Amino acid sequence: MSANDKTGVGAGSGEWRTPPELWVRLNRMFAFDYDAFASHENALCKHYSTLEGTFNGSTRDGGPSRLSAATGLEWVTLGGEGRRFGNPPYSRGFLARATRWFVESRNDFDISVMLLPDARDTVWWRKWVRPYATDYPIGRVRFLRPDGTLGASPPGGAVVAVYLPDWLRNA
């Protein structure tokens, strides 16, 4: 990802950790039980997904899961319940896949929340965020590097996007 990519945080890895103070506030509000975009080192919930698959603690989750043919992303269904959090890598191609996946799988969870760049002028935002999520701008966020040290912030602000299942959205 280039340093001038307006949805990115600069050159290098797409693995930027959610700042602890932001995580605490969001988790207090939503009580998450699934971290959808994690590594083994930075998972914020007991249930989490990495590029290698879905895990329960440090072991591969043997519970019910689904694989999206459209996005290639796997997720644990938690029996159609649960509260999902996602801070996806901010690369252009992955953001579109990640938000599409949240939309397509929103009925597998009670609520799904994503931390996204405020990129309302992009095609992926208009297609996968605006029609399905309520978004709350939170300004610029300073993410942590994979080693836990304070890193850069994206050039623009961030939003908390909340996706509800159809049964609740249409109530």
Radius of gyration: 15 Å
Q: How far do the termini sit from each other?
A: 41 Å
**Strand order of the main beta sheet, please?**
4-3-2-1-7-8-10-9
Give the helices and strands as they follow along the chain.
HEEEEEEEHEHEEH
User: Which class of secondary structure composition applies to the elements?
Assistant: alpha/beta
Number of strands: 10
SS strand fraction: 15-25%
How would a textbook summarize the main sheet? Answer: 8 strands, mixed
Instruction: State the share of residues found in helices, binned by percent.
Output: 10-25%
Shape field: globular
Average pLDDT score? 79
- Our count of helices gives 4
* Uncertain runs: 1-12
Q: What topology does this entry show?
A:
Layout: H1 20-30, E1 34-35, E2 47-50, E3 53-56, E4 59-60, E5 65-67, E6 74-76, E7 83-86, H2 92-104, E8 111-117, H3 123-128, E9 133-139, E10 158-163, H4 166-169
Parallel strand pairs: 1-2, 1-7, 7-8
Antiparallel strand pairs: 2-3, 3-4, 5-6, 8-10, 9-10
Describe the structure in your own words.
By secondary structure, the chain is α/β, with parallel strands linked by helices. The protein contains four helices and ten strands; from the N terminus they run αβββββββαβαββα. Strand 7 (83-86), helix 2 and strand 8 form a beta-alpha-beta unit. It starts with 19 loop residues before the first helix and ends with a helix.
